[in-house]
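yo

u said u wanted the structure for the complex thing, so here. seqs first:
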Amino acid sequence: EVQLVESGGGLFQPGRSLRLSCVASGFRFDDYAMHWVRQIPGKGLEWVSGMSWNSATKGYADSVKGRFTISRDNAKNSLYLQMNNLRTEDTAWYYCTKDILTYYGSGTYYDGWGQGTLVNVSS
Amino acid sequence: DIQMTQSPSSLSASVGDRVTITCRASQTISSFLSWYHQRPGKVPKLLIYDISRLRSEDPSRFSGSGSGTVFTLTISSLQPEDFGTYFCQQSYDTPYTFGQGTKLEIK
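structre next:
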């Protein structure tokens, strides 16, 4: 069974930095692309960033480009999201998701979701 | 960015009803269209991908169809556990955008 456990959320001031982590189990982590998807409580979903199995290709939503950095450590079955220069509009639940594909690109779908970690950006 | 627009935004239906939700893309997205189901307080779950491919563990009352820019999710006979919010998503081009969601309530 796919298990994804996120951590690193909390209350942060605007302009600060944080790193989210996601530890995966129940599948061969280095066989799949991985993503971060966020959801403002009670609202819709927004894809944030994704990365191929080997870190070779990655992408970001325009709203986070230049501020967020996705990375992974296959030896540790872990996915990360470095979030810099936080804004109040970054407040959301952040979900680590598993792709059904190995590569990052068209046809990406998320067949595994963590429980999420809540990031609250407020002064 | 490709805009995804769902209709209706909400609906109420009875057990046994046939329910259809529509998702329109602002440009053609080939076959890269998926549907997710989210129950209150739970995380989203992939339901259908590549327009019409149903996951093996999901009941056959769910089906997807469409092409080009207009896609539909159909529930042939609504069950109590089908309540919640349904989201469509395109994965044709980044950013991989979602529809705003359709909230389904059981009468």
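Chain B has a mean pLDDT of 96. The CA atoms of residues 22 and 72 of chain B lie 4 Å apart.
cya
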